[in-house]
Structure formats: C-alpha cells, structure tokens
Amino acid sequence: MNIGDVATRTGLPAKTIRYYEDINLIKPLRDDNGYRRFREKDVHKLNFLGRARALGFTIEDCRTLLALYEDETRASADVKQVARDHLTQIEAKIADLNAMRDTLSHLVDACAGDDRPDCPILQDLGGKS
Amino acid sequence: MNIGDVATRTGLPAKTIRYYEDINLIKPLRDDNGYRRFREKDVHKLNFLGRARALGFTIEDCRTLLALYEDETRASADVKQVARDHLTQIEAKIADLNAMRDTLSHLVDACAGDDRPDCPILQDLGGKS
DNA sequence: GTGGGGGTTCCAGTGACAGGAAGGTCAAGA
DNA sequence: TCTTGACCTTCCTGTCACTGGAACCCCCAC
C-alpha cells in the first residue's frame, strides 16, 4: 500500500503520516523506487495513533501508549496512569475555558453592540475603574 | 520606568513585553543607554493586553481590540463582534474537550489498573474489534 | 575595581503539523 | 513513443505566542 491509500484508509493526511515516520512512530518499508510501502500492521498503528490523538493525547503520550499496546506483559495500571493524567489536564483546560466563557458571555451580553462607542468589554479590558 | 518594573507592575514577563514591542503592539521610548523607557500609557496598554490574553483572545484579536480601544469613534458593535466570535470558538473548544473527557473517563473507569495486561483503554485505541 | 543585578540583541526551540517548491515515478491514452 | 496527470519523494519554511539561553553592555554599591 502506498501512502495515498493509507491516508484514505486512516483518514490521516499523508503529511501527518510522513511526520509520524520522521519521529519514529511507524517504520514502513520502502519499495525500490523509494516509495513507502505500508503493511497492515502500519495501518493498524496509524489508526491507533489517530484515535489517541483524537482523544487529545500528546505525541509523546501516544509513543508511550503504543509501546504499552505492543507490550504483552504491560500492567494496565501503567496505561491507566497515562490516561488519568491526561484526563486531569483536560479537566483543567475545561475549567479555564469555562471561566473565560463565563466572563466573556457576561461582557458580550452587557455590550449594546450598536454604533455608539460605549462598550463594557473595552472598559473591562482597560481596567474598568 | 524600566522593563523590570513594568514586568512587576503588569505581571507580564519581560520577555513577553519585549515580544509585544517586537510585533508592534507597544512602542516604548528609549533612553540614551538603549534601555526601554515605559510611560504610564504603555503600562496601561500592557495591562489591557494581559487581560485580553487571559480571556484567550489571540494576539491579532488583541491588536484589533487595542485599536478599537484607542479609537474614540468606534462602534461597540465591532467590539462585540470580535468578542462573540471568540466566545463561539471557546464554546467549540469546550464541546470538544467535554467529548474527550467523557470518552476518557469512561475508559479510565473501565480499566482495572492492576498488574494484568488486559486494558479497555488500549482495546479501544486499537479498534476494539 | 569588582561584583551583582539590571538591561540589550539575536538565535533556537516548543507542538504537531501544513504549505509549497523542485523533482522522480508510473500507468493510461493519443 | 510521447505526453499528460496523478502520485510519490525530500527539504525548507511557517504557524502561535512565547521561552530559554548565549554573549554582551550598563550602573551602582562596596
């Protein structure tokens, strides 16, 4: 399979797939013409990576998870730890964003949004007073 | 005022302040020795920028907002539009993160987290079957 | 004069790719 | 046989908003 087919099958851009090879997440073979040749195993890994990335895991997390995935003797506790740490980070981000949203939506509601210059949003950013 | 005092007063790292000058958000004066000399006006702008960034506005948004802030003839509708667009993006991000959190917390809960290799998290990432 | 705590510039790195240039390869059609 | 066009290759640059660090200058107190 060439990279285009793999891109179609995995939903990942070819650029991303090349990048993943670059950083040693996958190691496709090469044909005589220099084209990458992907095995089912590679496609499987890429799907794994795509799903992990979709859950927001960093590339380094993905590397760890992939290693655990391929290690038959792993302890599920190790996997769970990675996932839980990530979950904690996501929750922190959500909390941050919720705070921003609350502040911002108050300000947006308070703003008349007409042609006059008076604006509570700018007042707030400028330090109210 | 030198950059260190400004950093203390605004809570922004000196590096960030230099960067903001670099990209023309502020234009402090210069002393004969080459040191930046900040006026109250500059500090005020930096505080504005700090608050806007804390609300998650991009630098380009900040540039726009700052221009509106300094334009006495602005229409509050223009400010509101910028804020509302940003709010929409924040809400989209929150939705994404909530989806990740839900999936992830289900998986974390389902994982025994012991020394055995069986792990629903990896099963899910690997495509379950 | 020396030490330390300011300040300056410039360059590289971050994360996870995306865009684009310049060129090689391959199968199909005229 | 030639050409077209789709595909592939590598390599370099840019993204965003900084951060870290090197190498150097400036100023004041001791």
TrEMBL record, chains A, B:
<comment type="subunit">
    <text>Homodimer.</text>
</comment>
<keyword id="KW-0010">Activator</keyword>
<keyword id="KW-0479">Metal-binding</keyword>
<protein>
    <recommendedName>
        <fullName>HTH-type transcriptional regulator CueR</fullName>
    </recommendedName>
</protein>
<keyword id="KW-0805">Transcription regulation</keyword>
<dbReference type="Pfam" id="PF09278">
    <property type="entry name" value="MerR-DNA-bind"/>
</dbReference>
<keyword id="KW-0186">Copper</keyword>
<dbReference type="InterPro" id="IPR009061">
    <property type="entry name" value="DNA-bd_dom_put_sf"/>
</dbReference>
<keyword id="KW-0963">Cytoplasm</keyword>
<dbReference type="InterPro" id="IPR015358">
    <property type="entry name" value="Tscrpt_reg_MerR_DNA-bd"/>
</dbReference>
<dbReference type="InterPro" id="IPR047057">
    <property type="entry name" value="MerR_fam"/>
</dbReference>
<dbReference type="Pfam" id="PF00376">
    <property type="entry name" value="MerR"/>
</dbReference>
<keyword id="KW-0238">DNA-binding</keyword>
<dbReference type="InterPro" id="IPR000551">
    <property type="entry name" value="MerR-type_HTH_dom"/>
</dbReference>
<feature type="domain" description="HTH merR-type">
    <location>
        <begin position="1"/>
        <end position="68"/>
    </location>
</feature>
<dbReference type="InterPro" id="IPR011789">
    <property type="entry name" value="CueR"/>
</dbReference>
<keyword id="KW-0804">Transcription</keyword>
